[in-house]
Amino acid sequence: MSRRQVKQGIIDVVLLPNISWVLLLLIPITFIGFFPSYYSTLKAPLIIHIHGALMVLWLATAIIQPWLIKLHKIKWHKIIGRLSYLLMPFILLVGYLLLQYGYRRVLGGDLVAPPEYYPDGASAMTKAADFVVIGSVYFIWLLVYYVLGIVFRRKTQAHATFMLAATMTILGPSGDRFIGHLCDALGWKFNAVAQNFTFGIAFFLFIILLISHYRRKLPLWPTVTVLVLHLMGVFLFYKMPFHPAWNSLAKMLFSVP
What we know:
mainly alpha
């Protein structure tokens, strides 16, 4: 790394300039996104409260880590990184239980979409499997990106790239709700553009990062890996709903004997 790059700051070199500031936007997006359904009343089952608290901790961790690098607080960065080894298993466990809870809700007859959304004759199991598709995709993304970030923790660029991808999984659930509220406020229809907005934001962020890595002559494989995994997840998001294979897999994963 050149002297100029060291002066600029390693986080701005291996990721993007001012990415630490950009990640701060996740705070208002998350708060506004979940305000009507959660923060405005705080009335929810216990599993949702636990999930919410853990995700706030993950959001705080994900935002503060690049700032610690930017401010040359490497010791604290490593300490918080090791603490995430304890936090992430709980996030994943509670995330799985939340998916199970959602599956059982719909299986029990809760209405989560208008009747015309489903194919004719769709069973309760089919509706329940569809309900957990998006959550399952983000669950897998978070798990894979975080594990890759830990595996390659000694390779700074790869570690930072995978951890950025893990952080961006926060944007999905909160960003989709944020866009939905914006469409409602402006009287716009929540169309395909709005539905794919957060997918597109993540994709173009890593395309820009790929170009940046290419120009800086940094290895491209971490960013390419994220882009491939992202596209695979989007593909599954569109192919899993109402598919017999997913219906069976969801039943196996989320139904309780």
